[in-house]
Design goal:
It is a single chain. By secondary structure, the protein is of the alpha+beta class. The chain has a single domain (2-83), classed as Metal Transport, Frataxin, Chain A (2-Layer Sandwich), CATH 3.30.920. It has four helices and three strands; from the N terminus they run H-H-E-E-E-H-H. The protein has helices at residues 2-7, 17-26, 53-66, 74-83, and strands at 30-34, 37-41, 47-50. The protein has a three-stranded antiparallel sheet with strand order 1-2-3. Helix 2 (17-26) crosses helix 3 (53-66). The longest helix is centred in the last third of the chain and has 14 residues, at 53-66. It is globular. 8% of the residues are buried.
Length: 88
């Protein structure tokens, strides 16, 4: 088990929901229910909405890496679809 933890391996599963919520709160996000969804609001007022805390973390990281212009271009979409074999 220690070897696995040292290498780093994690999978999205039920046991990641609470740690993800705790991580969001530790990072300063206010998390609240929005109907059936969750909303994470950053200290600067930015807002993220998702089904679960793990997905919220993913959205936050997406914006961190690509900024608020996170959308993929047509060329990026085509490249990824081809690379992963998702083109029909």
């Amino acid at each position: 088990m220690a070897d696995q933890a040292e290498r780093g391996h994690i999978a999205a599963a039920g046991n990641t929901v609470v740690p993800a919520l705790l991580a969001l709160e530790a990072a300063g996000y206010r998390v609240s229910k929005l109907g059936e969804l969750l909303e994470a609001t950053s200290p600067d007022g930015s807002s993220y909405v998702a089904d679960d805390p793990v997905t919220l973390l993913g959205l936050i990281k997406l914006v961190e890496l690509r900024s608020w212009t996170w959308h993929a271009t047509d060329a990026e979409i085509d490249s990824v679809l081809t690379r992963f074999g998702w083109m029909h």
